[in-house]
Amino acid sequence: MALILIADDSPTEVYVLRKMLEKNGHEVIVAENGEQAIEVAHAALPELILMDVVMPELNGFQATRRLTKD
């Protein structure tokens, strides 16, 4: 199945999404903020990124823009 990156600073949201995705056979990796999401995405090359919009340091919009430029 797919490697999916969850970028979210809410432990509850991460828990719910991770459980649902892993139950369906996906491998899940997690980032807690936008900067970390960019680093993890470059290292792991996930097939899908679920990005929260409101996060500390770098928000989801900024992180997405930087990822699409790469």
Secondary structure: number of strands:
3
Counting helices, strands and paired strands, the structural category is alpha/beta
Going across the biggest sheet, name each strand in turn: 2-1-3
Characterize the main sheet: 3 strands, parallel
Helix share bin: 40-55%
Strand content: 15-25%
Label the overall shape: globular
Radius of gyration: 11 Å
Provide structural commentary.
The longest helix is centred in the N-terminal third of the chain and has 13 residues, at 11-23. Helix 2 (34-44) runs parallel beside helix 3. This protein has 3 helices and 3 strands, in the order βαβαβα. It has 70 residues and is of the alpha/beta class. It has a 3-stranded parallel β-sheet.
